[in-house]
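hey can u check if this looks right to u? its 140 residues, i copy pasted from the old doc so theres a chance i mangled smth
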Amino acid sequence: MEEPVRKVLLTTAMNMENVKTTKDRRFSNACIIDLSLDSVPDHVWQDIFEYTWRSSRNLWDRKLFVVGERLRLVTTPDEFGEKLEWIKQVIKETNKTVEAYNLVAKKGKERIEKETARQNQLEEETRVEVFKENFRKRYA
């Protein structure tokens, strides 16, 4: 792990200027709503997010996508408020899982570093012992 996975949030200013809404061509009563995120999520965050929302009891019709720095939601105007609260909860759960992921990755990295240092120390001790043994054989 080179860098920890960054958490991602919905932008706090929810107004019509930063929420793009268009009519869905496939579903007559649905809209496509693009919700701004505070950054472009990396692949780990996206994988955790997708797993979290797909395993949710409130699955609906699986019409939620990460598109760059936005979440794209397909919904009806009547269901938007409920789905927005659900999305906020899914993001919160995703970020909590990201924290746990980062902690496990950090501990794993520390464990590997300790094992590598221990292995290097053993190799150095072995080289010294081999040198001493060769010295004793040659000059004893």
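The chain has a mean pLDDT of 85.
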